[in-house]
Amino acid sequence: MEQVAPCRLEIKTMDQLTILVLNLIFILFTTFVFQYIIVSKLPNLYRKHAKILIVILGGIQILFCMSFTVIGSPDFIFDLRLIPVVVGGLYGGPVVSIMLFIIVAAARVPFGGNGVWINFFNMLTITILTIYLSGKFKSFPLSRKLYTVVAVSLSYTVLIFLMKATVFDDLSKFQFMLLYGMALSGGIFIVTYFIEIMMQNQLLHKAVIKSDKIEVVSQLAASVSHEVRNPLTVTRGFLQMLKDPSIDEKKRLYYLNTAIDELDRAETIIKDYLNFAKPQTNLASSICVKEEIEKALELILPYANHFSVNIKKDLMAGMNISGEAVKFHQCILNIIKNGIEAMPNGGDLVISCREMANNHVSITIEDTGCGMSPQQLAKIGEPYFSTKAEKGTGLGMMVVNKIIQEMGGTVEVKSKLNKGTKFKITLPLL
Length: 430
Ligand code: ADP
Ligand code: MG
Prior knowledge:
430 residues; alpha+beta; 5-stranded mixed beta sheet; two-stranded antiparallel ribbon; 9 strands; elongated; binds adenosine-5'-diphosphate; binds magnesium ion
């Protein structure tokens, strides 16, 4: 008899562990399918309905976990349902958290017992904690994300343990609680790590596609000659017609203006492109951020006035970076020009530069213009992407990206349709 008892206990522990592992495998599998099929293959669907889709995924995972659960006592059942609640909430935000909470609370009802309320209380506590953390979670580095989720799941285990010990005076199955705590925190660690790796892969994939396209552009200078040929052909046609002495003054003027416009267009294309394709001439020197921005502003002021755009500046003095002043001007001009063009009926454009903590300068350019949809935002900087039809070349932002990259900096764009756009350039200080 004495030998049978421990053996039984072991088998039981194994069973319990199997159930928890089954929970974990299901969560990992469905998360993988979700990332692989929905996030990467149907990005438009995901962008539009991200929150609902995360709730559906989390809901399925919760229901699965609760169908394969370890019954501890009538009041306590154990499974990994906490993982979708926490992970879904942290990545999806407060609305997702609340929806998942409703699902997890409702799904416990059929099991009955005091557990309905215990689960309600515990999950509510965790949901509030998750909502509190969700704002900052996405900007955490990987290690901090991992220890945050582990800390949340350990607090949950301690919460249940304390409840069992105090309210129910039940200190049995301590060994199981330990196992549960380990499975839960190990599980949530693996799931979060897995999600992070998949997201990183996807970002990398996007970056590779983008740089591929840029490569193509620098090789195919021929495409520019094609772009330029159209305006030249049009100009030639109008000049030809001007030869006719019988045309009236009004028509003459119209032909002349069109010819000039078309030549301007050809010039813009060549200028934008040459800036991009020009071989690297390294004439970097120390340039003062405030002074150079002010010079660029002087150049663009007439254009801004023409569209009744009011430029406000808030520039910190005394910051120097390494680079070519002309190229730096070009970046600032291209971004401001886009901002002005986004506000054809006037508006405010704010440009500011600040020193950041890590010996970098951040330059922000913010407009209150037409903004961009997420789809447009994803394309900005790709060669020839323009929403301005005849008036745009779709090369401006590509040039900006290339120059800033060469200077060792980064460009970030945030935009809301019909609200405005904010560009943030970060560059290392000298
Ligand atoms: P272009 O200005 O010739 O169209 P760019 O590369 O400068 O080319 O910009 C590409 C596209 O990005 C623009 O056509 C526009 O749709 C979008 N865009 C850029 N900046 C802004 C902005 N400040 N507000 C709204 N849309 C913008
Ligand atoms: Mg532009």
